[in-house]
Design a protein that fits this description.
Pfam families: Pkinase. This is Protein kinase domain-containing protein. InterPro entries: Atg1-like (IPR045269), Kinase-like_dom_sf (IPR011009), Prot_kinase_dom (IPR000719). There is one protein chain. This protein is α+β, with helices and mostly antiparallel strands. It is 32% helix and 23% strand. Strands 1-2-3 form a three-stranded antiparallel beta sheet. It is globular, with a radius of gyration of 14 Å. The relative contact order is 0.13.
Length: 100
């Protein structure tokens, strides 16, 4: 199955819960399962599986256009914190994908 077909299938599989945005569907490394939350169109959180490791992950998309500099700095702090902390009750940062 090629990547285009995988994206189509992911979109069809998740259509019952919520529509997957194009930026989430284009992540070939992850199989997106269901929407967990977020305030569209600014943030989305999806349950997914990392294809090569089989690990269950949460994929969070944040739309950066139109947000304040202060909020961008807060997001960078969140990334730094998640990258450094190791605690059983705090999700581990697995990957960061920046898309302009």
């Amino acid at each position: 199955m090629d990547s285009v077909e995988r994206r189509r299938r992911m979109k069809a599989d998740a259509a019952d819960s919520d529509e997957i945005s194009a930026s989430i569907a284009d992540l070939d490394e992850y199989e997106v399962k269901e929407r967990l939350g977020g305030e569209a169109p600014f943030t989305e959180v999806w349950r997914a599986v990392h294809r090569s490791s089989g690990q269950d992950v949460a994929v969070k998309r944040v739309q950066l256009s139109g947000i304040t500099r202060n909020l961008r700095e807060c997001l960078e702090c969140e990334l730094s914190f998640l990258a450094s902390v190791r605690h059983p009750n705090i999700i581990k940062l697995f990957d960061v994908i920046r898309d302009n």
